[in-house]
Design goal:
The structure holds two protein chains of two kinds.
Chain A lengths: L12 H40 L3 H4 L14 H8 L5 H32 L5 H11 L8 H11 L5 H5 L7 H11 L3 H9 L4 H12 L1 H17 L2 H6 L7 H11 L4 H33 L4
Chain B lengths: L26 H28 L16 H6 L7 H33 L6 H9 L6 H11 L6 H8 L15 H25 L3 H9 L4 H29 L3 H6 L11 H10 L4 H33 L1
Classes of the chains: A mainly alpha, B mainly alpha.
Chain lengths: ~290, ~325
């Protein structure tokens, strides 16, 4: 696409020098501006950690303590040993259910997406559009009926309630189907000629070539499960709660003891931050992959 | 698709419907089965069951569930009903939040992306910093920002006092209570949109800007005539997804203001959830979720259209 104002005028040396200087100032300015914003973005995290390291009396001290004057780990000790808040148990609950949910989602979605993208059978298109159209229905509509289902199945306060109900979501199928469709059929033909059946094609051709898409779906599914709160808040309680849902009950107990509250908040934030450091590449890649491209 | 080999393809072995080879026409359905069963049981069935619950007087422990038709829907539009006032107050609050937060989130994420798409010192670090809060659970975000905006000893008021201002009781002043909620929302979700914008910006050909440079175009002109028009599909996508997310307002107000002061930050989801789980009025809550979903459906439909267009592009 050519812009109407394009001209082929050669640059003069003086003009280039001015431009270069202007570029240098503007990039310094941009850097300073970004630094200011970054400080504002990091301040809440700093304040969370700083508060968690202060003795309880210092958290509301006047004048304010900009950093912990006498840093202590007593808040963490209180959180980790409190009988009201089995943080270690909550963490294990979150880890187990999020991993099981993620594994199940990626496995079932990739099998279904493979069938829809690469195999021929009656009703293939119809089924694809059927599950796709379910994505149009806002998730909120299933909240109350699903909760009643959990009551009827006796799944309240069990891991089942955290693992199964949203595993049938259509997003993973949709995303993987898009990716699988783009893999050249020639590669599959070669394997077929060697006598591979559909499962072998899936395992040895499709899966290895789809690692970025599978990794992206894994990271998204895991973070979504790890951070979800509304559902766990109502289907699991006490010892069976997940970490973010536990933190919710925590706020009720420690509403005014900020040091302890922030220690609990830091402990809840930590696993997601660590996961982020490891999966940063896939997260950002995934956003571009699942978002619009042009 | 063409086969370059002249050797004839081996016919797959023949077998009955129980043989697990590719001649069996049932094999593709086996791949669909695990996901399909979960999908029917936990997505399709609950939606249909929700319709049943909202049109009956549903009580999980009773033996009969009398049919009441659209009674629970009618109540939502009847000024005399006990649900009317709070439901529509919550709807108004949520709509206000959408109107306040969406322009802020779209504009600021674009501004961040514009600052970051050209090389600048520490670019990877800045991108990580702005994206990072997005991986935190809403409980963490809510609890943390409640503490930052604490009326007495929060960081924000400490900074205000440090600047010689009076403290402002954000959490307990009607209207002002939206400030901490909006700040927390922008902090937690601007990074996702920024990343989508960054991807779109990297797709714009640099030659367009070089051409404009030769013509002496100002940076505003470049933005107005090159960047903005080329970003419009992305802006639409970001806006629609942000609107949908904003309608989901729940934890920000639950944890930061506890729906207060005077229920001025009560959200639809919070009201619906309390109707179901505190008042144990499942039918009424189910009806509310369908009415609310109807509103969301307008925006979901736009998003769906965008997605379909994307599918079309991939075929």
């Amino acid at each position: 696409m050519a812009a109407p104002w394009v001209s082929a005028a050669p640059r003069t040396r003086a003009a280039t020098r001015t431009r270069r200087r202007a570029h240098l100032t503007s990039s310094t300015l941009r850097f300073v501006l970004l630094l200011l914003q970054a400080i504002i973005f990091l301040a809440p995290v700093y304040w969370m950690i700083a508060t968690s390291l202060k003795p309880e009396g210092d958290t509301v001290a006047q004048p304010i303590q900009w950093y912990p004057h006498s840093p202590t780990l007593e808040n963490y000790a209180r959180v980790l040993t409190s009988p009201d808040s089995p943080v270690v148990r909550w963490t294990l609950n979150s880890a187990f259910t999020s991993l099981a949910f993620t594994f199940g989602t990626v496995l079932t979605c990739s099998l279904a997406a493979y069938a829809i993208a690469r195999l021929k059978f009656r009703g293939r298109e119809a089924w694809f559009w059927f599950i796709l159209s379910s994505m149009m229905v806002p998730g909120l509509t299933t909240l109350i009926p699903s909760f009643i289902m959990m009551l009827k199945l006796g799944w309240i306060d069990t891991y089942h309630a955290l693992i199964w109900p949203s595993m049938g979501g259509a997003f993973g199928v949709f995303m993987l189907r898009q990716f699988f469709t783009g893999i050249p059929f020639e590669l599959e033909e070669a394997a077929r000629l060697d006598g591979a059946n559909s499962l072998q094609v899936f395992r040895h051709v499709i899966v290895p070539l789809s690692k970025p898409a599978l990794a992206t779906l894994t990271v998204f599914t895991f973070l979504g499960a790890w951070n979800s709160v509304i559902w766990p808040l109502y289907v699991v309680h006490g010892d069976m709660a997940t970490l973010p849902a536990g933190l919710a009950s925590f706020q009720g107990i420690y509403a005014t003891t900020y040091g302890t509250l922030m220690a609990g908040t830091t402990l809840t934030a930590l696993p997601a931050l660590v996961a982020y450091l490891f999966a940063q590449r896939y997260l950002e890649e995934g956003l571009t992959l699942t978002g619009l491209k042009e | 698709m063409s086969l370059s080999l002249n050797r004839p393809r081996e016919r797959p072995r023949r077998g009955g419907l129980l043989a697990l080879n590719d001649a069996n026409p049932l094999v593709p359905y086996l791949y669909l089965l695990p996901h399909g069963a979960l999908f029917l049981a936990f997505i399709v069935f609950p939606i249909l069951f929700g319709v049943y619950v909202s049109t009956h007087h549903y009580d999980p422990v009773a033996t009969t569930q009398p049919f009441v038709g659209l009674e629970y829907y009618r109540q939502l539009f009847d000024r005399q009903s006990p649900q009317f006032d709070l439901f529509w107050l919550a709807m108004r609050n949520t709509a206000l939040f959408v109107v306040l937060s969406v322009p802020l989130l779209v504009a600021y994420s674009l501004a961040l992306a514009l600052q970051l798409y050209r090389p600048v010192r520490g670019r990877a670090f800045f991108r990580a910093v702005f994206f990072l809060p997005g991986v935190l659970s809403w409980t963490v975000v809510g609890v943390l920002w409640r503490w930052l905006f604490d009326n007495q000893s929060g960081l924000v008021n400490a900074v205000l006092t440090g600047l010689g201002q009076d403290t402002i009781p954000f959490l307990t002043t009607e209207g002002l209570a939206w400030v901490p909620i909006l700040a927390a929302t922008v902090w937690a979700s601007v990074g996702f949109n920024m990343t989508v914008y960054l991807a779109a910006l990297s797709g714009i050909s640099q030659s367009l800007y070089e051409a404009a440079d030769l013509d002496g175009a100002t940076s505003w002109a470049k933005f107005r005539y090159i960047t903005w028009p080329l970003l419009s599909p992305t802006t639409l996508f970001v806006t629609v997804t942000t609107v949908l997310a904003a309608f989901g307002l729940f934890f920000q107000s639950v944890f930061i203001t506890n729906a207060g002061p005077n229920r001025s930050t009560l959200s639809v989801i919070q009201y619906l959830v309390s109707e179901a789980f505190t008042n144990v009025q499942y039918s009424s809550a189910a009806a509310m979720s369908f009415v609310f979903a109807g509103v969301l459906l307008v925006f979901t439909a736009v998003q769906f259209r965008l997605m379909i267009r994307d599918i079309g592009g991939r075929r």
